[in-house]
Amino acid sequence: MQSGTPDPDTPRDLLSYARIYAESVDVDVDHDRIDWEISKRARRRAGACSYDAESGDVTIRLTWQAYREHGWRQFTATIRHELVHAWEFQEFGEAGHGERFREKAASVDAPRHCESFAAPRLSLACSDGCEWSAGRHRASRPVKDPGAYRCPDCGGDVVVAHRESGVTWTDAAGYERARSVVDDW
Ligand SMILES: [Zn+2]
Ligand SMILES: [Zn+2]
Fold it and tell me: Closest Cα to residue 45, out of 8, 97, 10?
């Protein structure tokens, strides 16, 4: 990571960096009328922009997992893309990916298409039957040693799954076994 490059490591930090960055993008939007949210659920799209026609409020939702996968520099492209949608909503009450979007997006070097990102390779879940789960792209500490972690929602045991193969484990030894049996990690 280059020095000086933002490297937010919590959703809250990402939110503040995104807002600050957005102000520097040359799109004429009313920043006070934009709500920012970070979605921690795995979604297919890196960002989304929605509009409440009654209140005129625009909401930009950024996907935490996408940032984790892409890193900040690439993620700013998603922010620019969503800002162009925000501009359309504020100016025209609608947004899309047509000619108007394309021209504006090109002017701020934003990708024309909403960026999608790959589903995480690994998932953590609660083995006690509650709804909690989280995706992981890398072998983070909870992935390598789930026995040392508890479900943040109910305190239950954590089970890790390698999605492609369906192999699961609940402790450090299980992780080692999984690494040796899963060919295509
Ligand atoms: Zn879009
Ligand atoms: Zn749980």
Answer: 97
Query: How far, in Å, is the centroid of ligand 2 from the Cα of 152?
Result: 7
Residue 80 — φ and ψ, nearest 5°? -65, -40
| Low-confidence stretches of the chain (pLDDT beneath 70) | 1-4, 42-43, 115-119
Rg (CA), the chain: 19
Q: Calculate how far, in angstroms, residue 51's C-alpha sits from the geometric centre of ligand 1.
A: 13
Give the orientation angle of helix 99-107 with respect to helix 72-92, to 10 degrees: 130
> Which residues 6+ apart lie within 8 Å of 83 measured at CB?
22, 25, 27, 29, 60, 108, 110
- Taken in order of first residue, the domains within the chain and their CATH numbers are 11-107 (3.30.2010), 122-181 (no CATH)
Nearest to 49 by CA among 83, 90, 26, 100: 83
Query: Taking the model in full, what pTM does it have?
Result: 0.63
Q: What are the two backbone dihedrals, phi and then psi, of residue 117, each rounded to the nearest 5 degrees?
A: -145, 160
Reduce the DSSP state of residue 184 to 3 states and report it: coil
What pLDDT was estimated at residue 101? Answer: 94
